[in-house]
Amino acid sequence: MKNFTLFFVLLLMLNCTTDTSDVQDPFVDLSPQTLNCVDDLPQVRITNNGTMSYDIVIYGQDYSELYTQSLSSTNDTDWQELSNNDIIIVVSESNSNGQKIQLSLMPCDDIEVEIDANDTLMISGE
Description:
Layout: H1 2-16, H2 32-36, E1 43-48, E2 54-60, E3 65-71, E4 80-81, E5 86-92, E6 99-104, E7 110-115, E8 121-123
Parallel strand pairs: 1-7
Antiparallel strand pairs: 1-4, 2-3, 2-5, 5-6, 7-8
């Protein structure tokens, strides 16, 4: 009976331990960029998947010009670090009035904006 009790206690101890494969590592889903970011300036990249070339201007909250570029079809800008958190992105081509997106960015934000196949300005992934 003594051996049975010892065996029973041992069996209970084995069943109560956690399997390490069931424990999830909390850092698995974090990208290296997220782990390294400490108040980095926000960044924006614009991709032109449309059918026309566009002139792109990024304005700050005080309407100061932060960035400008002509962007032909199927090209994109480099990542642009922005010192202002509240920006307006304006894209226009010679035959239209243009389109705009207003963004409020936070430090470490990486936002991709795209001109889609229908020549509509939008935030990528939305």
